[in-house]
Amino acid sequence: MSEEPKNPTAGESETPTAATIENAPSSDEPQTTDLPSTDEPTAAAKKPPAKADGDKPPAKAKKEKAPAVEDKPFAEFIQQDYLPALQTALTKQGVKDLEVSLVKQKLPVAGMSSAGDCWQVIGKFQEGQRQFNLYFPQENIQSQRAFSCAENNTKTSTLEPFLIDERKITLDLMVFGVVQRLNAQKWLNLN
User: Fold this and answer.
1) Which pTM value belongs to this model?
2) What is the rounded CA–CA span in Å between residue 144 and residue 137?
3) Largest CB tally within 10 Å, which of 55, 138, 172, 181?
4) Are residues 149 and 162 in contact, defined by beta-carbon separation less than 8 angstroms?
């Protein structure tokens, strides 16, 4: 027969002694456990109390954006920003004797002489043998635009749309468009 192990507390009273009370953890001290606590304040309870309307901090002033160069009046933008940027870009592409100007005149396209005057950026180089025109029927770079080019003082025969798929026309985009078009014409040193 096997003996049953003796219970060391068998026969003793269920009342804790003073020694066991001293070694027991205090309920006043915080205990760390893996269980979520219901004593933690919720996110809503952690927020400071709402302040009265008079206690609000002053609203931060929004920084105003400087107006874009494209928002200038048409002639001012073309003269002060576009023509110098175009001149610089084409000089970097190897065009040495470029003359660019803004004029309002009739379209130099065959069959279009009866149309009214139109704003045009005219660029000439290679001693005037190569000419390109960028047309603005309205004084607005965001409205319709067209492009033409002619060589050896011939009359322009084709007027083509210029940057028609773009939502917003910018200075850089207008410069890029002319450089790209002249490069496609094989008029720049890149070819």
Assistant:
1) 0.60
2) 7
3) 181
4) no
Nearest Cα to Cα of residue 121 among 77, 74, 92, 83: 83
Residue 112: count other Cβ atoms within 10 Å of its Cβ: 13
Q: What is the pLDDT of residue 83?
A: 93
User: Residue 76 corresponds to which tokens in the numbers above?
Assistant: 């001012």
- Please state the domain extents for the chain: 69-184
- The answer to whether residues 79 and 62 touch, using CB atoms and an 8 Å cutoff, is no
pLDDT digits (tens, 9 = 90+) for 100-116: 999 988 877 666 666 67
Ramachandran sector of residue 11 (left: φ over 0; alpha: ψ -120 to 50; beta: rest): left
